[in-house]
Each structure stands twice: as structure tokens, then as C-alpha cells.
Amino acid sequence: MKNVDLLIIGGGSAGLAAAAAAYDEGIRDILIVERSDYLGGILHQCIHNGFGLHRYKEELTGPEYARRSIEEVEKKNIPCLLHAFAISASADRIVTVVSPETGLLRIQAKAIVLAMGCRERSRGALMIPGTRPAGVITAGAAQKYLNLQGYLPGKEAVILGSGDIGLIMARQLVLEGIKVKEVVELMPFSSGLTRNIVQCLNDYNIPLSLSSTVIEIKGRSRVTGVVVAKVDENRKPVPGTEREISCDTLMISAGLIPENELSRSAGIRMSRSTQGAVVDQNLQTSIDGVFACGNVLHVHDLVDYVSMEGEAAGRNAARYLKGAARQGGFDRCIEVKEGPGVGALVPQYVDLSAAEGKIEFRFRPRGRYTGSEAVLLSGDEKIAAKRELIFTPGEMCTMSVDAAKLKNAQALRVEIRPVGQGVQE
Question: Given CB 3.0 to 4.6 Å as the disulfide criterion, which of 81, 113, 188, 232 pairs with 8?
């Protein structure tokens, strides 16, 4: 048994930021556990630029961004246990880890920051029928082949999913000499950032088919093509719209799933909407002293926001260790519910006894809304509002509210409502 004040599970952007922030708050007994052979997480294989604009005010590649976070932790001499797998956690903050260096190790922590990140949704999760040939890969696997191992995953590709990762990989595949036949998107709109649609698809004349999906994979030893069909309002294939696209690679970029098996093993209360832990405004979960941040809590648009959330989790974990944070679950908190048009809302609770300064509510619209506003309600009373020309699931929304306005709130709800001629598309 090893005892530590603060255990951080995950050495990616969120975990590194949490460790550095806790150190700056005076916590010295910190341990980072990372299952990979290196710190920095997935950023090492993201060689495109666009990282760091919000946090560092300059444009960095993924490895450059990761290097800065790693150097900050190294300067503080925060210990890291690499190639270590956390296989279980308990409600009394005991985490079991296995690694070649330590063997089976149990760690008793006074506080824990969960920063395990997320994984890609695979073909199996999408239940695409057809054969099982080579050439069906996820966007992350394609990144690893290209950027870390130097292999081309194919010569002609179809991409399923128009999230940011899929869009960015469409551009890189073209730059590497692979012909991208088409990007296929199930929804009637792209879930990626507008800048990525322009820079990665439009600039390279890559066609985007909306309200469409892959309904069959062709080929035996290797993919020879895919069958694409239009879908109706219930996302079911429309008979008679099928068409076959010849290709040797199907790259799947159909969303990310937070890695919360460890959270569930500890008995942490989970959100069906975010697929992450339920937290209060201080990112503390239903178990005292356990905090969650980054993509394990909810999937973010930008790594800058992941790091910022990690910093907040680290600071709040330090406050908990100093006896200045909530105890007793959510008993003294008020619930924040998702109203019409709102999904993936964080936080789900507000501890009014510890509410101070600005409280940020983050969420994803459930559809595309024009001429609408997001409102924070206490009963029927409007406490705050944010108006946008367009709300879209591709961009997470943030509402900042003065904590003083919530002192007399009984229950809170966030919803999107039309203003004037506003409509849901």
C-alpha cells in the first residue's frame, strides 16, 4: 500500500494541468499514473496546428502543446508512474494499479483527480453490417499509422463522421496522397467546427454528404467499397437511396466515449447525457475528494479548454485537501437540469455554500437553432441569458453567471428558446 495526498489518474492534458495547478496551491505529495509509456496523451500523434490559441495565445501543433505541459510538470518534479494501469477504484479512494515497475500496487489517496480521457466509437458500436475485411479503422488509428509509425492506411478512403477529428484527418489524408472520396455524416449538419469544415473540406474539394450513413461494407480480405444511403428524420436508411462508393479504406470518426469504467467501479454517480461523472461547480463528484476533468467528464471541442478544466480540478482538489471544500455528497447542493434543446450539461449541481465569483455552465445544443437564446432559470425566473445567431451541437456553449444571483435559487434549469423568428432547423 502506498499513501499519497493527491493521485491523478491520466497523464494527458487534463491530468498534467491538474497536477501543476495543485502544486501551485501548495500540494507537494502528488502522483500521476499514466498507462502509456509517455506523458501528453493523444497529442503526440496530432501533428496539425491549431492548439494553444486560447491558453498560450499562439498556434501550436499537438506535440508542441504537450511538450509545454510536460515541461511544467517536470520543472516542479512531480513524480509520474508510466505504463501503469489503474484497474479498479473504491469509494474510500483506494486505487489498484499494475505496472512492470511496481507489479500490483494499491494506492490510498486523500484526493483523486480523474483525467482518463476518452476513446473512439468503433465499427462494432455502430453495428455496420457487412464483412470484416482489413481497411476499417478509426480516425485515431489512422493518425497513429501516419504520424507515429509512417504507414499509409490506404489509397482511397471514405470517412464516416464529420466531427473535428474526421475533418482534420480528411485534410491530412489528402496531403499524404490518399484520395478522400467522400465524408458521410448521419446528421443533417456537421458536428465539427466551422473553421474545420472550411479549411479541411471546402479548401480541398472533398464532398460532404449530410443525412447519410454507411449501411454495408464490401470486400473480404480488404475493403473494396461501401454502400451509402440517405436517412430519414429518425436516422433510418431510406430504401432506394443506396449507392456504392469504391474505396479500400473506411475511416470511422463517429464520436468519442469518456473512459469511465474506473469511475463506475468506484460507485461514482454518472450522467447519461455526458457519459461522464455528475459533478458540482468545483468538479467534485458524488464521492468526497474525487474530482473529474477533461474528456473523461465530457467531450471538449479544444484541448485548451481541457487544460483549463484540469487546472480548475487541481485547484479544487488542493482546496479539499486543505479542508475548504464540500463534504457529504450532493446533499447540500441544488440540482441543475437540462431543459429543451440542451444536452451534455456540466455541472449538474451547485453547492451554494461554496458558490463565489463566476460559475460556468457548459452544454451542447441538441440541434441547430437560429435566432435563439440559452437561458438559466430558477423555476420560471430568468437568472441569465446568452443570445447567439446560431446554436449548433458542433460547438459547446458556455454561460457565466455571478454566484450571487444563485443564492436564493431553489432549482435550476438551462434551456434554449427561440427569440422573435428563431427556429430549430
Answer: 113
What burial class does residue 138 get, using C-beta atoms within 10 Å of its C-beta: 0-12 exposed, 13-18 middle, 19+ buried?
buried
- Paired with 156 in beta bridges are 179
Tell me the per-residue pLDDT of 301-311, one tens digit each, with 9 for 90 and over: 889 999 999 99
Residue 424's domain comprises: 332-425
Which of 148, 131, 313 has its CA nearest to residue 225? 131
Task: Report the amino acid identity of residue 420.
Answer: G
The CA-CA-CA angle for residues 315, 316, 319, to 5°, reads 90
Q: Which of 233, 254, 275 is the last residue of a domain?
A: 254
The x, y and z cell numbers of residue 167, run together, are 475533418
- 3-state secondary structure at position 206: coil
Residue 27 to residue 56: CA distance in whole angstroms = 24
Contact 111, 6 (CB under 8 A): yes
Q: What CA–CA distance (Å, rounded) separates 112 from 288?
A: 9
* Cα–Cα distance measured from residue 287 to residue 275, given in angstroms and rounded to the nearest whole number: 17
**Residue type at 57 in one-letter notation:** K
- Name the strand (E) or helix (H) holding 75: helix 62-75
Instruction: Quickly state the pLDDT bin for 122 (edges 50, 70, 90).
Output: confident
CA angle 188, 369, 305 (to 5 degrees): 90
The whole-model pTM stands at: 0.91
Residue 78 has pLDDT above 70, yes or no: yes
Statement to judge: residues 112 and 133 lie in one domain: no
In 3D space, the residue among 118, 175, 117, 166 whose CA is nearest the CA of residue 142 turns out to be 166
Rounded Cα distance between 327 and 83, Å, is 33
User: Are the C-beta atoms of 200 and 217 separated by less than 8 Å?
Assistant: no
H or E element in which residue 114 lies = strand 103-114
Domain tally, the chain: 3
DSSP 285-334: -SSTTEEE-GGGTS--S-HHHHHHHHHHHHHHHHHHHTT-S--STTTT-E
pLDDT tens digits, 379-399 = 888 999 999 888 888 788 999
CA 44 to chain centre: 17
Of 31, 47, 39, 36, give the one whose Cα is nearest residue 14: 39
For residue 332, give Cα distances in angstroms to 289, 324, 349: 16, 15, 10
Q: Position 332: which residue type?
A: R
For residue 106, give the C-alpha cell: 494499491
Q: Which residues touch 34 (CB under 8 Å, ≥6 apart)? A: 10, 11, 12, 15, 80, 81, 82, 83, 84
CATH number at residue 313: 3.50.50.60
Last residue of a domain, one of 307, 328, 349: 328
Q: Are 125 and 139 in contact (CB under 8 A)?
A: no
